Amino acid sequence: xxxxxxxxxxHVFADLATLLARASPRRSGDELAxxxxxxxxxxxxxxxxxxxxxxxxxxxxALIPYARDEVTRLILDSHDAAAFAPLxxxxxxxxxDWLLDHATDSAALAAVAPGVTPEMAAAVSKLMRNQDxxxxxxxxxxxxxxxxxxxxxxxxxxxxxxxxxxDDPRGIAAATFDGLLLGSGDAVIGINxxxxxLPNCIALTEMLEALRLRHAIPMQSCVLTHVxxxxxMIERGxxxxxxxxxxxxxxxxNAGFGVTLSLLREAQAAAQSLQRGTVGDNVMYFETGQGxxxxxxxxxxxxQQTVExxxxxxxxxxxxxxxxxxxxxxGPEYLYDGKQxxxxxxxxxxxxxxxxxxxxxxxxxxxxxxxxxxDMDTLMTLxxxxxxxxxxxxxxxxxxxxxxxxxxxxxxxxxxxxLGLGMAPEFEAWLDAMELRDAAGRIREMAPKAAQAxxx
Length: 456
Prior knowledge:
This protein has two domains: 2-139, Annexin V, domain 1; 144-449, Aldolase class I (TIM Barrel), CATH 3.20.20.70. The protein has helices at residues 16-23, 28-32, 40-51, 57-60, 70-77, 81-84, 92-100, 106-112, 118-125, 130-137, 169-181, 198-215, 227-235, 251-256, 261-273, 292-295, 304-316, 338-354, 373-385, 409-419, 425-433, 448-455; strands at 2-6, 9-13, 144-145, 149-150, 157-160, 188-191, 221-223, 243-246, 284-288, 322-326, 359-362, 390-393, 398-399, 404-405. It contains 22 helices and 14 strands. Strand 13 (398-399) and strand 14 form a beta hairpin. Helix 9 (118-125) crosses helix 17 (304-316) and helix 19 packs across helix 20 (409-419). Strands 7-6-5-12-11-10-9-8 form an eight-stranded parallel beta sheet. The chain has a two-stranded antiparallel ribbon with strand order 1-2. By secondary structure, the protein is an alpha/beta fold. The chain is globular and about 75 Å long. Keywords: Bacterial microcompartment, Cobalamin, Cobalt, Lyase. Adenosylcob(III)alamin binds at residues 193, 245, 295, 401. GO terms for molecular function: cobalamin binding; ethanolamine ammonia-lyase activity. It is an enzyme of class 4 (lyase). It comes from Pseudoroseomonas cervicalis ATCC 49957.
């Protein structure tokens, strides 16, 4: 049991899972699940108790029993004791202080990353203000590569998301060119298919491959279909670059997605066997989001942010090119308003980067949430300062297939301009070769004849 005295009142927390849940910032999902603190006083008391907890407690007390959950087994079996050694004698509060110390630089953070468990990352995030999350994330550098190099200092990549409600190739092509002409797509051109059958997924993959070859674009493409579809596409000779899969932080939640760790390993090996990368061999693309395990009743009584961090423990095992949280996509039942979405986005980015992941964020919300585009502007800007690897952008910030609001190509251009951020170097070189940037490196308006020639 964990105890704390706050405001003259003694608070008792039955176990580690309860302590973590009560220490979490307020969010609707934890409240609906009956896990949240009953008052602000209890929340502060939980954080006080959490700050005194040794980090080794997370190695001794598995939140989900080892025998019941393959994610727990993965986290504990892959823990790097040598990397953890500098942190072994620290409490969660000490860990926070160490992370914020100016002497703790990118190299130091990268060195300890294999020794930090997802639960440790979640715990320390609960003691941090938003500015703390931004400050530490900004020191974490995770670089990956396939045909472009993602995560280099001073650069911000984008996923170009040209979704279409009927998978019309002309509509997808129009949205793709719209993004390319505005400097998006250096992380990936990724389509969420409206029709998730194998022939359609192959057709979309082949269309993107033809586009890449025709214009010699240094890019990677991905049709965000189920991992079993990707395996079938590879078996049929389709030009698959990245294998996508939504993942969660418990074995039961992943079973709801129809995946196991062994299936992910099979897919990774199949994609790497194609050897389609030119600057790297990171072939996996994972998507996560707070509330996924809770919505499937597969959270084992854990708060949604801690379960989310455990999903990053899964992702880390597969050396992905890209990982992103779709932070506001699941809805207000889990993140009620702009404030909760903003906090969750910073938490997810921080925890992923701390664990050594190439983190991106879909800065987004559903139209029945208490949020608007001003909230997304704020989160986008904070993530830019925090060194996010990539953001997702769609035409006009409105995904007409998934029916939610995200960022636009123009939003990312504005952010790059405000913060002086470049793109993936290979993609920048292509834009220059296509004369799509001016001498100052800004996207320029094309003459009508030049645009017509490019579009064909």
